[in-house]
UniProtKB/TrEMBL annotation:
Domain SGNH hydrolase-type esterase: residue ranges: 62-192
Family: Belongs to the 'GDSL' lipolytic enzyme family. Platelet-activating factor acetylhydrolase IB beta/gamma subunits subfamily.
Any Pfam family: Lipase_GDSL_2
Protein's recorded name: SGNH hydrolase-type esterase domain-containing protein
Cross-referenced InterPro entries: SGNH_hydro, SGNH_hydro_sf
SUPFAM superfamilies: SGNH hydrolase (SSF52266)
Source species, domain of life: Eukaryota
């Protein structure tokens, strides 16, 4: 998968401006924990679980709505996190790539992991599995499951994979609007379900001596 900057479809330079903002933040701020990726990272800072649990850990969130694997790869190739030395990096990417070939997505995620490890070799790296979408079971979920089932294999020796809390799909396989307000993006409660395991992983990586 090629590294590509997103086209300025609307003529307002929003994507470039956001990238420049990320780059400037990385130059002047420090972070123990760095979040990178797509919609789920873009909204994370607005959520209670972030403000109450993640923010005290000294985090930066560099997430952009609609970012695909090729977009994040482009950002990384520009060296936008080169000045940061976080202890932990958490990535959510690939959700906007569903529809591409399965192997292309997995190879792209693998390349992102390799790029991050090259620039930040001492950082503990985590990837979130892709999230399910749609109220009821559907072909897109089947595709997401197929990608998720191979993610650990493709990230072996590069990153740890954080699983998705099965309760997000309910016992009957249905996603509740109280967890995903549009059956794609997470609500406050949805973020709690998905990011509590992230919090556990991050806290354990920062303070392994406190892990029971």
């Amino acid at each position: 998968m090629d590294s590509l900057a997103r086209k300025d479809t609307f003529g307002d330079h929003r994507w470039d401006d956001l990238h420049n903002w990320f780059t400037s933040e990385a130059k002047v701020k420090e972070a123990e924990v760095l979040f990178l990726g797509d919609d789920h990272i873009a909204l994370l800072e607005q959520m209670l679980i972030y403000r109450e649990n993640f923010a005290p850990l000294h985090c930066l969130c560099f997430g952009a709505f609609g970012d695909r694997i090729c977009d994040l790869q482009w950002r990384l190739d520009q060296g936008y996190i080169a000045g940061l030395t976080p202890r932990v990096i958490v990535v959510s990417i690939g959700n906007c790539d569903v529809g591409q070939d399965e192997c292309i997505i997995l190879d792209g995620i693998n390349k992102i992991a390799e790029t991050i490890k090259k620039s930040n070799p001492t950082s503990r790296l985590f990837f979130l599995k892709l999230l399910p979408t749609g109220r009821e079971p559907n072909p897109r979920r089947d595709f997401v499951n197929a990608v998720n089932n191979k993610l650990e294999e493709y990230l072996k020796n590069l990153a740890d994979v954080i699983d998705i809390d099965p309760s997000i799909q309910g016992t009957n396989g249905k996603i509740d609007v109280h967890d995903m307000f549009d059956y794609v993006h997470l609500t406050q409660e949805g973020y709690r379900k998905i990011f509590e395991p992230v919090l556990v992983a991050v806290a354990s990586a920062i303070n392994p001596e406190n892990t029971s």
